[in-house]
């Protein structure tokens, strides 16, 4: 069954408001999610969304395909799913998913917080999934990329160092301390990387670093 996209066409959101499009397996589920989200004063339905909330009972090849289609618009996606496997994490990130919320246990507050974070181009992943992502990155580098001698292309040594620490979960201040640079220098490096490679967020940057073979 095709997911139902709920869209209410109305006035454009005013400054500070976040336009959300809900995509769910059925109309009742889409309506319920939309009603829940609109209970937050900053979240509204609009013709052109700032964030897409995609609800799925499971993440399979069809889900990935639909998310990839949605991700082409460069609108950040919050995925509401029952389970997310370790194997699907990188594919989800590459599709534009910046937040993952447990469909079975999450509260309305957790979902709206994820939407607000996505609108600010920040990522929200459960701790266990972030741990799985980092573990996956390290395993693939050790077992797949390193034996092939793969390395980064077009990255400076400093950019590689920053990406490695980013993958370890270090914040800007910690990266600056470990590399003995100023925070403004690290922010400039991250901004340059994000502009050059069109990173959506820190998680996307880590996924890129994995593909480049620098972790």
**Using DSSP, what is the number of strands?**
6
How would you describe the shape? globular
**Whole-number average pLDDT?**
81
Number of helices: 9
What is the string of helix and strand elements? EEHEEHEHEHHHHHH
The value of Rg in angstroms is: 18 Å
Q: What's the CATH H-level superfamily name of the largest domain?
A: Response regulator
Separation of the first and last Cα atoms: 40 Å
CATH arch. level architecture of the largest domain:
3-Layer(aba) Sandwich
Quick overview:
Helices cover 49% and strands 13% of the residues.
Description:
With 215 residues, this protein is of the alpha/beta class. It has helices at 27-38, 61-71, 89-94, 108-119, 127-145, 157-167, 172-179, 183-197, 202-212, and strands at residues 4-6, 18-24, 43-44, 51-56, 77-81, 97-102. The chain folds into two domains: 4-125, Rossmann fold, CATH 3.40.50.2300; 130-212, Arc Repressor Mutant, subunit A (Orthogonal Bundle). Helices cover 49% and strands 13% of the residues. The radius of gyration is 18 Å and the shape is globular.
Give keywords:
single chain, 215 residues, alpha/beta, Rossmann fold, Arc Repressor Mutant, subunit A, 2 domains, 9 helices, 49% helix
Write the layout of secondary structure elements.
Elements: E1 4-6, E2 18-24, H1 27-38, E3 43-44, E4 51-56, H2 61-71, E5 77-81, H3 89-94, E6 97-102, H4 108-119, H5 127-145, H6 157-167, H7 172-179, H8 183-197, H9 202-212
Parallel strand pairs: 2-3, 2-4, 4-5, 5-6
Antiparallel strand pairs: 1-2
Helix pairs in contact: 6-9, 7-8
